[in-house]
Amino acid sequence: MKMYKYFLAGISMFMLTGCLSEYQELNTDPEQLGTTDPRAVFTGATLNYNNSSRAHLTGKYSGTMILMQYLVSSGGASSGSYISPTKPNEHPAPSNLSYSYYYSSFGLYLDHLINSVIPNHEEAEHYADVKAISEILLTHQQWLILDCYGAAPITEAFKAQTEGIRTPRYDLYQKSVDGTPMYEVLDAQVKAAVATLRNSNGEQYNLGTNDFFYNGDVQKWIKFGNTLRVKMAQRLEKADNAFYNSVIDEVLTSASNVIDSNDASCIYQHSNDYNDNVDDIQNITSNYVASAAFVNYLKAYNDPRLYIMVRPNGFGLGNNNDTNDEWFETFEKEYPDYKTRYARFADSRYVGMPANPDSTGSVTANNAYLTLPYHQEDGTEANLEIRMYSQAEGRYYVKNGGRNGNNNMPARAIESVDYEKDFQSIHCYTPVITYPETCFMIAEIAVKKGSAVAGKDATAWMREGIKASMQQYAGWAESMFVVAQTAPTAPTYNPLTEEKIDAYLAQPEFQTATLEKIISQQWINLYNQPDEMWATWKRTGLPAFKPLPEPANGVAYLEEIRESGVELAIPRRNSLGTPNTLNIDNYNEAVKQLCEDAKYGGDVSATEGRIWWDVQ
Fold this sequence. Notes:
Distance between the termini: 48 Å
Helix content: 25-40%
Shape: globular
Oligomer: single chain
Number of strands: 12
Strand content: 5-15%
Largest sheet: 2 strands, antiparallel
Number of helices: 24
């Protein structure tokens, strides 16, 4: 890593203050560039890929995980995340760090590696594979920005030193600065990089352990690049159907062209330490609970993922927390009829909170805990609290599910110390594109085509996706020590097994595929990738909304979102941030072009508007 320290010392940040601001020169010292090992630079350029700060996780909790109804605030659903016609000046949007990531870290570093470090290296010809892999990831970063913001300086970015461009023009999703559709540019970049990797030979230096994604496996990088092409094209199904079909028909001639197993999933294996239960990333355990829609769908078909994705409520013993058990014993003694009085919470230990803000008028929907009076030993009256709603399993996001660093963490929200593991033994990860996600993507394509795609029909792809998702979450549960999967002595031990997967798939609801069933399964699968579920919902309008989110015929539903009876809307994009005055003219021109698309919303702040690709 010594060489990478030199790289960091020689590169100046393309800084942001919530938006594009300053352009500073990159150090292109030929002596350093000629000796720095590009493989070490790659490790640094991708360090903690797309998950490099606490803000990334906490932004998901309060953003897309709320919007997609994985989570609800433990204090009851709020209207603050949504757009209301009664509040025309309020335009919330979920947290999105793609702009910051691109210009101050991943994009900046990868661009430097591709255009400066490798070309100037004394053995540049041996780093063609490293360059191609970096180009795929750089394109991925560019796409993530355009996907949520609609425009960004890309073509002319990072060219202050090489071409003297200090005021780069903005590319739009549908049009680059030279008029070429930007989505075609991105696809061509990945296609060319994949072609380079296909021609790899024994003279190429392998990334090996410098690659925290695939450990240098070039064939897996080829599959990832092809899958990324399909994923980017799927966004354009309605915006440019001809282009969409051209890409999927080219790539999906064989299942072996794309990610074809859980082992081939693109997952970054983290080296970060903020997942070690520090500060506010444990809020998923203390400040949020699972939603009714999420829990209802898992319960309806006895999904074995339920027990490793959701924790039981406090209406019974075996909470993996002695304090909760003590309170339940007090509660049971004071309210011996609790099974009938509170049947909703006692019949099943897995209960999700309503996501509709209008539901918070109910005493049992405005707090994760039910507060009730009880009599102490001396006869005086006091209050007890019993957890009504299930926590979403936080161990997929934070080590041990949250314990250290937050004085506001309620003791009862924490699992017993008996189930803690040493931080060094827990392996954090960030999914980029996984095999089950790929299966559901292809199932969707196949069900719309009405024919087999890449060798399987829609039903086969859907069933394969379900199986792969269950296996994937069981594997992640093992690596993150989810108690229900890994602790045989725990009261909640209920591991996900192959027998349970087979039983789930044997149910009549999953013998045939429909678009609604496919997206329902994708929704569960993307619990660890809520930003992508937000995009999937925008593309398809699924899961659909209804007053009570009760599943039917294998299909999941989200809960209608209302405030005082007024229907609220989910934000559909992020606002393009204002740069400093140096580049304000190019920014204003980009906003003008964005607003020429009527569905964009007429104003950059109108987050209820849509990016060009967002067509339903």
